[in-house]
Design brief:
25% helix, HugZ family protein, 155 residues, Split_barrel_FMN-bd, 8 strands
Length: 155
């Protein structure tokens, strides 16, 4: 399995990740939060987030984010398991057309999906950092990751 395929497998088999964003300020400070996501047909993660959340305020100041997808569950030594950090930019998208798709993956979102303060953001994956276990660390370009995710979704 290629590195891009490993990242695609992690990304398609999970639906919760850790979102990294930057707190605005004179010196931007890293901020991490738990984030449900779904993937659209182009392999891009879609994030439904409230305008009241700290990470949303961060995104308004800095479009650059990361999304850590963890595949280490079930490993006795969690550091031996695979994980990948997707790196890219986010932009707001029209949320109405993704409602059924999002709620199918996250049914609890049905009660707040239509709230006015919730918006949907699409992440464009520019690169991904894969840690496939001890000493197996690779950067993979976004085009390869997106193509592998699309192939994985098609299967």
């Amino acid at each position: 399995m290629s590195n891009a395929q490993t990242i695609a497998e992690l990304t398609t088999s999970n639906s919760i990740a850790v979102l990294g964003s930057l707190l605005p300020g004179e010196v931007p400070t890293p901020y991490a939060s738990l984030m449900p996501y779904v993937l659209d047909e182009s392999g891009a993660p879609l994030l439904l987030i409230s305008g009241l959340a700290v990470h949303t305020q961060n995104i308004h100041a800095h479009k650059a984010v990361s999304l850590l997808v963890d595949g280490t569950g079930g490993y006795e030594d969690r550091l031996a398991g695979p994980r990948s950090t997707l790196v890219g930019q986010v932009e707001k998208v029209e949320k109405a057309s993704f409602k059924d798709h999002y709620i199918a993956r996250h049914p609890s979102a049905a009660m707040y999906y239509d709230f006015n303060d919730f918006e949907l953001y699409r992440m464009t994956i520019e690169r991904a950092h894969l840690v496939a276990g001890f000493g197996r660390v690779h950067w993979v370009e976004g085009d390869a990751v997106r193509a592998a995710i699309i192939d994985s979704l098609a299967a």
